[in-house]
From TrEMBL, chains A, B:
Family, as annotated: Belongs to the NAPRTase family.
Source organism of the structure: Streptomyces kronopolitis
Reactions that this protein is recorded to catalyse: 5-phospho-alpha-D-ribose 1-diphosphate + nicotinate + ATP + H2O = nicotinate beta-D-ribonucleotide + ADP + phosphate + diphosphate
Designated name of the protein: Nicotinate phosphoribosyltransferase
GO-annotated molecular function: glycosyltransferase activity
Length: 442, 442
């Protein structure tokens, strides 16, 4: 299968392998028992937000569309499943012709969500819908975790530019998805070339401590960098003595030096000192970039400091304490037979424990108050009340197997900012608390 | 570039894009200043273990070798870098012919490590060695985090089988690497088909709650499953009422039923009840698998329960609270000129803050006491003391650009168990504490 047209940093021969074995053994058993073609509705939702978080952010929807489009079983994969004795021949035959022909609805990417929000709904035969569980959850759980952390950092930064630089702290391909999710959540640029290549996110980067240490003197290093990258570059000033480095930097680059970067120490204190020194040296336009183990709290604590941009790594790509969401993919309704038109029956697990859920195909709408501020996430299984009809959150993503909702990444980014702006003010609090909107079931 | 021979679940056209932009701008500046060919030594190490952890586990070494071998700049990548204006033409020309021709030494995969352990050393020209920073750190930081969590869970499980089932909780390709790292750390099987395909890890999986809910009755579902997967299958018994499900399961499959799986509720209590019920029904050989939000503590708490296997998801693939290691890649020595044979000068950042490190090319050895138990991680830059000569930890991985240390994954897994067994007994404590070995510098 040629997927080069997706422009991935790695060509994905098929996403069908990103699947837990039990999806396939369930398929085999359902084919055998004659239930495989029962019309089924699966929904993706979380039972709760990560502890203390005020809202979630849907990330990865666009990647889900790529994954669904590429979910095919080629000869190599079928051969593997056969050789391992995982599936019988009728099931392998069925998979050979598989493509998803059902419908997917979902919260559009960048939208916020709350406990119970049906962020995605997959509808089709049981056979085709069950197969997508693992890859859809992988993508949404990872990307939404990063998008939520990015959103909090973006709130904390109050409009100052944010650079994603966490590639080295996470799996090399998770890093590409993380850069994408960070952009959706409000980041501006990334250090990750693969993310620039694949998703057209602006990339940045100039030098590390190793570059200074490579040269005989710091001055040699700065001169080499300015010679080739120009005086608009960012010089890293904390390899030896910061004050001396700043003086050298301005001597070498002139007062038009683009920026200095501080990557260690007491950033608040150092930023103030460096700003004063730069101003005294006439480098009043030279910016200060800080990049040392930042999270949303550290960013917020620098709000009053003369800092012009933040670079964030570890805490961003690991979701700032919550590296995954707890999204699940649950069968919520299915037909009693495979005869077309058979009414759907709501279903749900109902044993002891916290893992129960609400059966039935759901709609969701965000209710606004008189000032246009969101005041509830309303979820229901019956008819949508007229006053909520134009506030519905689920949109068609895939119709009859065809992707219908491709969009530029900037659309998701803009949507996130708009959705966040419509939340109550408490959404911008970093402190731990409850979800800013209650979930109401109709 | 054809990398199909690597058998990746996705063909990687090149790993060169998994790189932070500053590696390339440093290259350009070094080429301009005439320092690019200075012989350089970079080392990968952590300054500390995650809080409370007793030891680290090296994971991902084998994947690093794949990444280094595939680190090439093809026309597509060069075109991207040119079009974005990231690099000048001399640098693009240099990259067009690039392949790493230096040497890499490292702790072999599965080995344990401690604060300061030089887990990998990359040596060559500055130009070739600096380029590998990002991708090497991505792989080691991610895979080692999962391997360490897996190791703790494996200790807690005390020999009972562990199933990796976290694919849905992490990025779809991080999941494949996580399954691999979990295997190195002591897991036995995975639910992830891509991990089975790529790394030949045994895969398992039978059914989810959706399969039961698809059918008109639980009995129908169990019958369908047993009909096609045989009575040796694992039936999921907690969709409705566990006791009723266990009764039905044994009726349908007979006393030869392979296993039942419990995925919710008070696992300790339920496992005891289910065991008693199974025994009363004559299904004395039927195993009990538990799979609900387990981590190493939950596994340990079930040590006295009649549980035969654990399935672990979220907490495994997110490193059980520590989803990344804090490995860094630091220039520790370099020549003053590019004349061959120029002696190496130790270098290190030395500004304020916690980010200082020790210059010089290091060796490392694990000292044993009279009983053959490890008592120190000894690291030095001078000659290796004779009594430690045969306890050295770094082995050649790449020589003159050629990979020299490919090995089956089982070798890394066996090595991990052997290395762990040689640690003081406190290594098996799950409680928070200090590293079980002190790091001594000679």
């Amino acid at each position: 299968m040629n997927t080069a047209d997706l422009g991935l940093p790695v060509a994905v021969p098929s996403t069908a392998l990103f699947t837990d074995q039990y999806e396939l053994t369930m398929l085999q058993a359902a084919l055998r028992s004659g239930t495989a073609d029962r019309h089924s509705v699966f929904e993706v939702f979380t039972r709760r937000l990560p502890e203390g978080r005020r809202y979630g952010v849907v990330g990865g929807t666009g990647r889900v569309l790529d994954a669904v489009e590429n979910f095919r079983f080629d000869e190599t994969i079928l051969g593997f499943l056969r050789e391992r004795g995982i599936l019988d021949e009728p099931t392998l035959d069925w998979l050979a012709g598989f493509r998803f022909r059902g419908d997917i609805w979902g919260y559009p990417e960048g939208e916020v969500y709350f406990p119970g929000s049906p962020v995605m709904r997959v509808e089709g035969t049981f056979a085709e819908a069950v197969l997508l569980e693992t890859v859809i959850l992988s993508i949404l759980n990872h990307d939404s975790a990063v998008a939520a952390a990015a959103s909090r950092m973006s709130v904390a930064a109050g409009g100052r530019p944010l650079v994603e630089m966490g590639a080295r702290r996470t799996h090399e391909l998770a890093a590409v998805a993380a850069a994408r999710a960070a952009y959706v959540g409000g980041f501006h640029t990334t250090s990750d070339l693969a993310a620039g290549f694949r998703y057209n996110i602006p990339t940045v980067g100039t030098s590390a401590h190793a570059f200074t240490l490579l040269h005989d003197t710091e001055r040699d290093a700065f001169t080499a960098q300015v010679d080739t990258l120009g005086s608009g570059t960012t010089l890293l000033v904390d390899t030896f003595d910061v004050a001396e480095a700043v003086r050298t930097a301005v001597e070498v680059a002139g007062p038009g030096l683009g920026a200095v970067r501080i990557d260690s120490g007491d950033l608040l204190l150092i930023a103030h000192r460096v700003r004063q020194q730069l101003d005294e040296l006439g480098a009043t336009k030279t910016k200060i970039v800080v990049t040392s183990d930042l999270d949303e709290y550290a960013i917020a604590s620098l709000a009053a400091a003369p800092v012009d941009a933040y670079g964030v790594g570890t805490q961003l790509v690991t979701g700032s304490g919550h590296p995954t969401c707890s999204m699940v993919y649950k069968l919520v309704a299915r037909a009693d037979s495979d005869t077309p038109g058979t009414p759907l029956r709501p279903v749900a697990k109902r044993s002891m424990g916290a893992k129960t859920s609400l059966g039935g195909r759901k709609w969701a709408a965000r209710r606004l108050d008189a000032d246009g501020i969101a005041d509830a996430e309303v979820i229901g299984t019956g008819p949508v009340p007229a006053e909520l009809a134009d506030r519905q959150l689920l949109v068609p993503l895939v119709s009859g197997g065809t992707v219908v909702a491709r969009e530029p990444l900037d659309a998701a980014r803009d949507r996130h900012i708009a959705a966040r702006d419509q939340l109550p003010l408490s959404a911008s609090q970093l402190s731990r608390g409850e979800a800013v909107l209650p979930t109401e079931y109709l």
